[in-house]
Amino acid sequence: MQSDVEIAQAHQLDAIDTIAAKLDIPSEAVLPYGNTKAKITIDNAPQRHGKLVLVTGISPTPAGEGKSTVLIGLADAMTKAGHKAVVAIREPSLGPVMGIKGGAAGGGYSQIVPMEDINLHFTGDFHAITSANNTLAAIIDNHIHQGNELGIDVRRITWQRCQDVNDRSLRHVVTGLGGKAQGVPTETGFSITAASEIMAILCLATNLDDLQQRIARVVVAQNFQGEPVTVADLNAQGALTALMRDAINPNLVQTLGGTPALVHGGPFANIAHGCNSLIATDTALRYGDVVLTEAGFGSDLGAEKFFDIKARAGDLNVDAAVIVATIRSLKYNGGVPRDELKNEKVDALRAGVVNLKRHVENIRLFGIEPVVALNEFTFDMPSEREFLQQWAQDEGVTLVPVAAWERGGDGAAELAEAVTRQWDHRSHQLYDPEDGVEASIRTIATKVYHARDVEFSKKANNDLAYIKANGWDTLPVCISKTQYSFSDDPSDLGAAEGHVLHVRELLPRIGAGFVVALTGDVMTMPGLPKRPAAEGIAVKNGTITGLF
Questions:
Q1: What percent of the chain has pLDDT over 70?
Q2: Can you tell me which residues bind ATP (predicted)?
């Protein structure tokens, strides 16, 4: 059996101008990066007219459940059915690529290509974000070293450096050691690039001017009087915007089925808002008739943030939603250990299906009746598939088997038909930010996570007072939470209920336009597993091997 990278490398790609022509994108708006990649300028695009289909998932296993694979297969099926389909998804991060989860370009015969480029450096957007982020960190340190005119309290610097690699040793560091000439010693740390506020700003900005204005509003520290210090106070917004000038334009590639794909931005959904750029989604809606986009992890994370943060900011309507489920994940949520997930376990499936039911209920909270896509694996047992079909029939849920990994668009044709039958929904948000940050957190916790209460730490309460004092209490919230559970305990699988959500810290992300609530033990810099995927990657005669 061929690996994903072998399938991708054997495919003859269309020239990027051919892909752009499928969407009637004018040639002057296409900025080629070689023969198979391009950036698209966003000026003078037509009015929005496309349908928007959101693909989300159930609570995953650590390996992921193939959400991108299903989405790409669905897009190719839409193309084969005569629709002018466009994929609009996130760029992969090197952290998971080199770590445990792998890339985010799909798999098998349902991929976006060139997958090696997309999963590694692509067009350099992540490098631009990392450079802008770390330039700001250097400017802050230099300002303090050069006399600290703004009176920045080094104990209250909230801006961290970042890099696009999982590295637990950088979570807590001290900079400026080595004497007076080396700067002022400061306790700080690194986040992964996907968690940087610059990433969130890129993904929510509407144009370059908006990007610069958002960067100017970023709060980097407090002064000795406890007042916020912003990028505008440091006069650094121009330099950071210059570093991001090209990165703001969406990237155009293609699927194995020849469907155009806009791949842009890449915040994680557990530690950030988990959606591709608003600019890419908006561009896709202007050039395509149907746009397939995704939100990271399950409905409790990426999908909730899609509706309450991204759709609110971009005035987007979600016309239809798909929940990707796998039998292995439902068995995992039913208590089956990872090394036994390929074994027949109908009783565990019966116990774990409550997780799928909860995700269906969550999507209904936003005004949409979802379609469940059962991403099939060869080791799924007939008895398990029959149980799920019967469960869906009993619950009044549309459940469609998908074999996109094996058959590409042909394996998602039934799913495409099911989606088109019910894509006339009017979506809405879950809460009103005017009610305040605390109320918004409690609404998400009780309605989406089914928590009985929310407990704020002493620091979180102090953060809340700071947020209110500065007039930020009406911003939307972005809850940082484990992807494996509806609670903040990753071991509490299934459909956790009646738990207490523990908020340990609130981070005002004024440039992005939301407040991050850190819960449980979620960290913004992941670590590598014992056997990272990086160990299996090699280059032979200039060809990359082992990349999934």
A1: 99
A2: 61-68
Taking a C-beta distance cutoff of 8 angstroms, is the pair 530, 236 a contact? Answer: no
**Residue 374: strand pairing partners:** 325, 401
298 is in an annotated binding site: no
Max CA separation in the chain (angstroms): 71
Q: Read off the pLDDT of residues 191-216 as tens digits, 9 standing for 90 and up.
A: 999 999 999 999 999 999 999 999 99
414 is in an annotated binding site: no
What pLDDT is stored for residue 100 in this prediction?
A: 78
Is 294 within 8 Å of 67 (Cβ atoms)? yes
Domains of the chain: 4-122+249-421 (3.40.50.300), 125-244 (3.30.1510.10), 434-519 (3.10.410.10)
* Structure tokens belonging to residue 101: 């989860």
* Residue corresponding to tokens 């990392």: 130
pLDDT at 101 over 70: no
Q: Would the annotation count 62 as a binding residue?
A: yes
* Tokens 């398990």 sit on residue: 384
pLDDT attached to residue 60: 86
DSSP classification of residue 334:
T
Does residue 63 surpass a pLDDT of 80? no
CB of 263 closer than 8 Å to CB of 41: no
Does the predicted model carry a pTM greater than 0.90?
yes
Q: Compute the distance between CA of residue 338 and CA of residue 248 in angstroms, rounded to an integer.
A: 40
HSE-up of residue 300 (Cα within 13 Å, Cβ side): 29
Active-site positions read 67, 69, 90, 101, 269, 297, 377, 405
